[in-house]
Amino acid sequence: MAGRVVIISGGGTGIGLATARRFARDGDTPVLIGRRPDVLERAAGSLPGAVALPADLADPADATRVAQAVAERFGTVDVLVNNAGGNGLLEPRPPDGTAGPVAEAAHDWTTAFRINTLTAVLLTEALRDRLASPGGRVLFLSSIAAYRGSGSGTYAAAKAALHPYVHDLARQLGPRGVTVNAVAPGYVEETEFFGSGMPPERRDARVAETLNGRPGTPGDVAETLHWLASHAAGHLTSQILQVNGGAERGH
C-alpha cells in the first residue's frame, strides 16, 4: 500500500501531524492543508516527501483551489483525512457585552460549524471525483462530544453533523469501492484544542472516565485512521469508531 497520496486537513499540528507521520512511515505522500502557512511548512519540512497547501477550507474558492492543485500535481487521491477543526470558542469573538446574547450565540454556532463541519464538507466535495476508485478512503474526525455534548453545545453539534454525512457519502461512494468512516476521539493531550491547557482537576476527571486510566494521544487516533485506510479495513464503511479508552461506550 506504499506510495499513496494522503490529503490531511489540519495537518500541521496535533492529530493531523501525527497522522501525517504515520502515513509517511509507509512511504506515502502526506499533503498537509491548513490556515497557517508557517505551521504547515514547518510540519511538511519534517516529513519526507510531504507537501504543504495553505488554505482556508471554509472558503469554497480555497477548497476548489486546493482540489485543482492536487489534480495537477497528483491526479488521484488515495486517502482523504478531514481532520481540520477545533474549539470555536478559542476563535476571535466580539468584545464581551457588545453584541448581545443572541448575536453572540449566532457567532459561536456559526464559527463552530464553519471550522468543524463546513471545512470537511467542502474539501470532500471538491475532491470526491479525484478519489481512487476502487480503494479510496475518506475519513472524518468526530468527537466524544457528539455523543454527550460539549458544555456549550456548539462543538458537539458541529461534530455530530458529520455523522449523517458519513453515512450518506458511504452510500454514494460505495459502488466505486470507496469507504467512508469517522473516528470519534475522547480526551486527547498534546493538541491545541484546549488552548493554553486544561485545569488539572478537569484533566483528572477526564482521565478518570477511561477504563485504562490514561488520556488519549495523537498517536492513538493516527493509528486508528491508518488502519481504516488499510486494505484490512476494506469492508468497513459508514461507521463511527470511538477512540476514548472506554470513556464512552456503545452506540
Automatic annotation (TrEMBL):
Pfam families: adh_short_C2
Record SMART domains: PKS_KR
Domain Ketoreductase: 4-210
Molecular-function annotations in GO: oxidoreductase activity
Keyword Cell wall biogenesis/degradation assigned: no
Keyword list, A-Z: Oxidoreductase
Domain of life: Bacteria
Enzyme Commission code(s) on record: 1.-.-.-
PANTHER family assigned: 5-KETO-D-GLUCONATE 5-REDUCTASE, ALCOHOL DEHYDROGENASE, PUTATIVE (AFU_ORTHOLOGUE AFUA_3G03445)-RELATED
Family statement: Belongs to the short-chain dehydrogenases/reductases (SDR) family.
The protein's name in its UniProt record: SDR family oxidoreductase
Organism of provenance: Streptomyces boetiae
